[in-house]
Amino acid sequence: MAKYEAPDFFDIDGLLTEEERMVRDAVRDWVSERWMPVVEEAYRDGFFPKDLIPELAELGVLGGNLDYGDFPRLGPVAYGLVMQELERGDSGLRSFVSVQGALVMYPIWRYGTDEHRDTWLPKLHSGEAVGCFGLTEPDHGSDPGGMETKAVRDGDEFVLNGAKMWITNGSMADVAVVWAKLDGVVRGFVVPTDTPGFSAPEQRGKHSLRASVTSELIFQDVRLPASAIFPDVQGLGGPLSCLNQARYGIAWGVVGAAQAVYDEVRQYGLARTQFDRPLASFQLYQAKLVDTLSEITKAQLMNLRLGRLKEAGTLTPYQVSMAKRNACHDALEIARRCRDMLGANGVAGEYQTMRHMCNLESVKTYEGTHDIHTLILGRAITGHSAFHG
Fold first, then answer.
1. What's the pLDDT tens digit per position in 74-91?
2. What's the pTM value of the predicted model, to 2 decimals?
3. Which is catalytic among the residues 85, 87, 137, 367?
4. What are the structural domains, with CATH classification, of the chain?
């Protein structure tokens, strides 16, 4: 495999701090040296390389978005660059880290009690424990408010019943952040996965995100102590705030996937000879490279602005929706184009482009589909909601 050369046509490096570049380069090197040699086997055989979790923890990327204790706090741009480099390796790798930090550690940090934080955050940060986030249900994807999972009070306990679907890390998780309706109101619970009645069968047969664990969560009379509930957050605002954190990371991450496939086809075109000339010397090939690099560059600039707004504390969920929608759409189109540029080799496992292409079909769908983000932005622009109700 040729050495990765990250595209940076507009000298984005010059807009980054020295610390941001150092963080990015450390993760970039780790992905090249430790992840890339194993990812094709993991994708082919359908598993996440759990033995690498301690190394991710040593890099400081698990919960690096949180200002807690002695965690090595990453700024928003540095965190985004981490997501970019991880997804350059594979969407499943970025998903693992994103779920751990943005969907599990973040709500425990923001909404949990001191007991929740002290019990779980150090273990999740060190990789000793793995977490998952239970919101999506079998019959309620884009409409989380329709969830059917319920909690009922029983003396000093809560009893949880229901099911969640498409849950990253579920089958290997030690703790789940679960959203359920209590007296008709959405509430969050911290659920250790060894609680009786909890099960997480892995979902097999995927054609996407194969180097990632995806599970169903099943709750059959799961009894939780009163201390399991997030005490002060009610309604969909809680889980949606977590999704906003994850969407921010996705917007950066998919640019890494786009950069990976662009670099692969650029190097392929320079090395491969057709009709006695390098493939990259032909007009059509060059035009596709130009279109690809242009979209990557625009997404890089949008993400950098997004990060600086987050630093300033002025970032809105609508801006995150636009970046997630734009980056996912463009990254998938880039992967499809680059797969075509590889010809028949585009379906071979020794090339990464089709793996990224298949993964991006999922990433475009989760944390809000392209169409859902369109409607979110339409509401922001017009003041009128196109959602039912």
1. 999 999 999 999 999 999
2. 0.96
3. 367
4. 12-126 (1.10.540.10), 131-228 (2.40.110.10), 237-382 (1.20.140.10)
